[in-house]
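Input.
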Amino acid sequence: MGHGSAMKLSATLLVLLHLSMHVVDEGQAVNPSCSCIRFTSTNGKERGTFSSPDYPLPYPRDICLLYTFIAAPHQIIELMFTDFDVYKDDVECNQGDYVKIYWEVQGPGPPGAINERSAWSRALCGNRADVPPALYSPGPSLILEFYTSSRQNNNTGFLGTYNFIDRRLFETEGVQIPGTECDYQFSRSGNRPTHGRLYSPRYPSIYPNNVRCSYHFHARPKDRVKIVFEEISLQKGDISCLRRADIIKVFDGRDTNAPTIAMLCNEITGYEVLSTGPSMLLQFTANSASPGQGFAATYHFQPPPDSTAADSDRLLKLSFGKAFESLGPEVSATTSSCHQEFNSDGTKHGTLTSPHYPLAYPPNTHCHYEFFGRGKERIRLLFQDFLLYKSSDGSLSCTNVDSLQAFVNVDGRLENVATFCGVDLPKPIMSNGPKLMLEFRGTQSSRHSRGFKISYSFVENFGITTGRQLKEFPCAFVYNSSEAHNGTFASPNSPGPYPRDTECSYFFHGGQTEKVHLHFTHFDVEGVLPCEAVSASDYVEFSNYMTEDNRYGRYCGQMKEFHVESERNFFKVTFRSNDRLDGTGFKAMYQFLEATDEYQAPIFDKAPKSLRLVAELVLLSVIATHWHRRLYH
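Output.
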């Protein structure tokens, strides 16, 4: 690697390094231009600090310094930068000043030795926001190479902590299938545990970039399998899972022929899936050149809801966790008519009413209604009647008045997604997963306040009633010109707000000489241009291919009627929402036209860039309204 001239450390600096880094001894450098400082766990120092020379003063020029961390065979190294300020001369951090990370140290020589042929795993430069929260080695050694060029600057370098941790804390608690790299079996039989943990390969370090792992779960005949993904950190971004090389698929059965419950990618926390039967398959595929940290999850073999082992308290704690405990002991009292639990095992649809409906509900009413689905089921609520007491002071707020609130599970916590009060009939509500909770507070009462009547259903089609649903995706619908030459399609739960953490795909297949024309009559997708993750935007995307198509870009915000037209006989529409705010989605008409037929020119696609800019400027007032709503939500 031979960079720069030989580094010369003063006696004072060496003393400072000894004092600040706790465990320092002589090490083998890459070549004479690099000095080496070693940190080992052999002296009982499981943690400590490290820093760049002269920190917090600007670091010296023309240096090459190796920080070598050597753990015990059963340990891995955790590094966390509490401060980072290294001059950024190159986007990839390959030139100028940088910190390079080596954690697959191989070859002859003492543990932790590297040479000019060693491959570094990643390079860091810039400020604190440019480095990950933590770095983990896959094995018991890790080396940082800190190199500075001759260019003068006032950057102060870095300060960090290291920790030697037991890698056995991250072992998958299943039985590895012989002859495989990362396939596991989990079964509920005999004295085997009813729950445990599973991880991606090498977690919490980055996973390999060419691997496929299968995790097979087999419960007792009437049991269910629940998996809670505490953390998913694959490729960064908010790109559709259909275009991701690193992806997690969950199948509701023994093999990949079973329906797909979930397709997970990018970065997610607190996501939960529940099987409809005793088997589940989780398949993790990684083919990207930029692997992430992977996933950490727990599995649970759950007894059927009508068994004595699945009493109400236990089911609630397993399903919603500690979030429900804050709501008080009334939650578990599901025996009264005011506190009710609805499970899709009992019925797929029914009716829910407030106490004494259609008569007035009594004063000081406080009720909880919990819904538990399974597989890819979502809970959908349709309001048939709604009339709560509200004073005539003209206030539009639902604060401190009789109200009905809807909660879903977001990042492992209960989050309010809707609050209703007064007499306006609410739009439909849909959960973001197989669980939903309603809380009704009716402190006032009058003979005119008859409460509410709600139809509930456990649906697998996301409330999308057109097209043919594909079982190989959680939410995907096909529209063939051979079946219908025109029709309509809409976002999930239309005309109500779409659910959070949801991706749906719409595939349009025309004849050999046809193209696809879409006319959007309603469009309200939460976000601001350019509809990216940095602004926490939901979006709708169009493509003439299954892969990315930069011709159209992303659409979000509130828009008037507009048209989009394909260039081929295939067209794909992707809708994706995050776990933040939501809108009422979209409604659109589709039509298969002959390629030679003319239609009104679509906006945002055929128009020149100058006209596109003007059109986007027209939307600025709408965007400003959206930002106001997002800031004061």
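The first strand starts at residue 35 and ends at 40.
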